């Protein structure tokens, strides 16, 4: 019996898959302060032009440069595992597979886009990248990638995670990156937030504002901003996950009925799911599930809207599910899922009826993570535990219904830098947080008066 | 250009290699309190008989049970990487390969023997294992393995590492293991040490004594002790590393001139090196280097002697290089290399002239580790950094001599649970520790009057 389905280095996908070419509802453009679609040139102070081209591209397949492939080959292709021990523990007739993205040097899927972004910036003559990080997965990944191609790296880390996970800073430093807690005194916006709310746990929205400010305020023009999720080019870079999984499921002589990934900004979910979204668009029956925390229910409880990607409203308006750019979520351990918005491409796929979003609270997720660790061995990141909890729900349903079923989920990262969360869970110190409808209505107030996606779509058609 | 040489699951070695069958000088037996070779039966309260049989075996190849192979396949075979970026950074004509044992769930080579030991104990009807751990790699690995086969696990962790690396405890707990700092109040010997030296940083020797006491004092007979290094059966289980590496080097169309591993108790070194020791015995020219810390120079500065494996003198006398069973090393970050003794098989191979031991101080090792992290991406364990430092020395020598050379080292584990060491190194808080000859003479006093290996060998011959 095979446990891991392994590809050869030569099997690595040579192109990224761009779902924007296939989404039946089309993709709504980002809007500027004037309510009109943003000219790509307007993004030039923030991103290098080669990545902006990818961001706005609707080309279905985009070649991966040879040098980026070489960077990816340091840990890719990643294994696809059959979770035989977990299946046995659950007594389920379902087959459970997981794609193991935890084998990268930074321990998650994040380096897939980090090495690509670092390489494109380097090609464009950039010397320094600024970014934000939630739980630290992205900041670590970008620090790693910058060391690989020879760029400086500065990371604004959401303060609650900075305090919960001190090793993340040390990790970034080992790769030569700099990491400060956000809000920080290094930016005007950070100082403003600190003055108003000195005890704020921070948020990804705030940290993004700081990182963008730090990038655009370097007048040498040699600094750019880098984002680890949400944007189209990030989703694009992650699609090698799903393309590899397709080949590996074929090796296993199997095909998934259910595809699952946790979703904060959407990138690991999209990475696994978009190649399967393409299969679904072409008629295959697949249940595709993004899983988010109950304390940050972007897809499950917030309407599709135009909103800013950051708290200081420095980004254009993006068409996405959003809890409001001023939203500051509870300090749950899945720091990477604490984002107020969601990838516009994932949001659009939900609007197109291609996905079935789900939210799960943290205790069920940690319970699933501990069961996974004790059966399959690898200790999951708290973010990843959301995908595992959903996979376990599906496996239990199959058991009740006495029905065979093939479940595939993305094991987006390991939890070796998040062990204090396990300690707190196992010693009974964690509780669930659920947002009330009132809380959500309040947090969405900051979006009042923003254009509606429906109106924008109609206007663009006319 | 290939970066990783990957084996298929079906390529996993089906037998362990026992170097005891091939060492030209033979292997000296453990001695009991009466100075006579220990009867295997005398070890029965400590280990299950199936492992004792392996411990004393001189059979060259020992079959790996099907069920143990299944456990190993959760992460094996491990990749062999060509360190192209490191080579480039060094500007060396040498080719550098490393065997990546960091991909196991516990992040090191330790699970190779942990799953085997847990499985054999379970087969023998044991319900609970007690062990010690230095840096925490072994305690984590055994907790993981016990979760896999369904055993309880208790770990005595050397206090200095327990304090330096709090996440290790959380990691063991995530797998259901229990972890206490050693010396502890849970054993008579621990209480005795604490009474005499309340501020002791602890040592592996002390922790081993506690774990053995905890095992043999369970009168139900359902508890045994498990050791993560030093003993013959542990070296045996690790030889899958070198056997895989041999196949992978063949895939690369290459063959190592130099084979390197860090050495504390000897197990990761032996795992990679012993299959190459066999090649060397059969006439191949290979420079095989165990690397130890300058602050614990067992192989490089201590004679081959009979000494106890633990501080309380509960183990038989073992023929090995030893700094003395009462030795308490400096609190260096490579906690896994802070052992007073050395595997008898590794020690014997040194006596047989098959190995060239080397000691390196901690600052050079951390510098090597940071260079490795920034070129090859993976952050090394402080233990592993000793092998990297030696590989870099060899690569620089090749550069000076303008000579091609193939270097293979064991990347025994990642440093994601040891990041505070990197933080201290990068902020200039670490210093080197070197033992003086006086210190060594003093620490070896506790061995006065013990039989000499030479005499024992002569007596056994007669």
Can you walk me through this structure?
The structure is a homodimer of 462-residue chains. Helices cover 41% and strands 15% of the residues of chain A. Chain A has two domains: 6-10 and 66-107 and 239-461, Rossmann fold, CATH 3.40.50; 21-62 and 110-232, Rossmann fold (3-Layer(aba) Sandwich). The N and C termini of chain A lie far apart (58 Å). The first copy, chain A, contains 19 helices and 15 strands. Chain A has helices at 49-56, 66-72, 84-90, 111-123, 137-149, 159-164, 166-174, 188-196, 204-216, 232-238, 240-251, 267-281, 298-301, 344-351, 362-376, 382-400, 419-426, 437-443, 453-461, and strands spanning 4-5, 15-17, 61-63, 80-82, 95-100, 128-133, 152-158, 178-182, 223-225, 258-262, 287-293, 304-308, 317-321, 358-360, 406-411. In chain A, strands 1-4-5-15-10-11-14 form a seven-stranded mixed sheet, with helices on both faces. The first copy, chain A, has a four-stranded parallel sheet with strand order 8-7-6-9, with helices on both faces. The mean pLDDT of chain A is 96. The first copy, chain A, has 462 residues and is of the alpha/beta class. The interface between A and B is large, with 43 and 43 residues.
């Amino acid at each position: 019996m095979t446990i891991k389905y392994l590809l050869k280095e030569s099997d690595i996908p040579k192109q990224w898959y761009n779902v924007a070419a296939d989404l039946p509802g089309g993709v709504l453009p980002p809007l500027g302060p004037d309510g009109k679609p943003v000219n790509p040139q307007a993004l030039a102070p923030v991103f290098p032009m080669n990545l902006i081209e990818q961001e706005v591209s609707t080309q279905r397949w985009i070649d991966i440069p040879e040098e980026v492939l070489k960077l990816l080959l340091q840990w890719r292709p990643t294994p696809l595992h059959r979770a035989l021990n977990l299946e046995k523990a659950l007594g389920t007739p379902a087959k459970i597979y997981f794609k193991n993205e935890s084998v990268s040097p930074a321990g998650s899927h994040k380096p897939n886009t980090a090495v690509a972004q670092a390489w494109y910036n380097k090609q464009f003559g950039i010397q320094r990248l600024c970014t934000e990080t939630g739980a630290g997965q992205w900041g670590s990944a970008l620090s790693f990638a910058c060391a690989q191609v020879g760029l400086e790296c500065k990371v604004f880390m959401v303060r609650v995670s900075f305090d919960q996970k001190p090793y993340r800073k040390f990790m970034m430093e080992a790769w030569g990156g700099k990491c400060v807690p956000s809000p920080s005194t290094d930016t005007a916006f950070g100082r403003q937030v600190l003055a108003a709310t000195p005890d704020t746990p921070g948020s990804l929205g705030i940290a993004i504002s700081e990182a963008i400010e730090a990038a655009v305020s370097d007048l040498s023009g040699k600094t750019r901003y880098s984002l680890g999720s949400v944007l189209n080019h990030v989703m694009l870079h992650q699609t090698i996950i799903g393309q590899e999984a397709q080949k590996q499921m074929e090796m296993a002589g199997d095909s998934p009925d259910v595809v699952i990934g946790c979703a904060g900004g959407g990138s690991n979910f999209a990475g696994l799911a978009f190649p399967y979204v393409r299969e679904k668009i072409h008629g295959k029956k697949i249940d595709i599930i993004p899983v988010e925390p109950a304390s940050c229910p972007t897809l499950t409880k917030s309407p599709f809207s135009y909103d800013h990607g950051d708290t200081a409203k420095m980004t254009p308006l993006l068409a996405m599910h959003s809890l409001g750019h001023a939203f500051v979520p509870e300090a749950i351990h899945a720091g990477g899922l604490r984002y107020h918005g969601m990838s516009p491409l994932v949001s659009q796929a939900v609007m197109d009826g291609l996905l079935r979003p789900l939210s799960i609270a943290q205790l069920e997720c940690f319970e699933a993570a501990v069961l996974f660790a004790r059966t399959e061995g690898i200790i999951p990141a708290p973010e990843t535990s959301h995908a595992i909890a959903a996979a376990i729900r599906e496996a239990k349903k199959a058991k009740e219904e006495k029905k065979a079923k093939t479940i595939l989920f993305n094991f987006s990262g390991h939890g070796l830098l998040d062990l204090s969360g396990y300690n707190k869970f196992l010693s009974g110190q964690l509780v669930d947080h659920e947002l009330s409808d009132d809380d959500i209505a309040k947090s969405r107030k900051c979006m009042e008066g923003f254009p509606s996606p429906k109106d924008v779509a109609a206007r663009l058609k006319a």
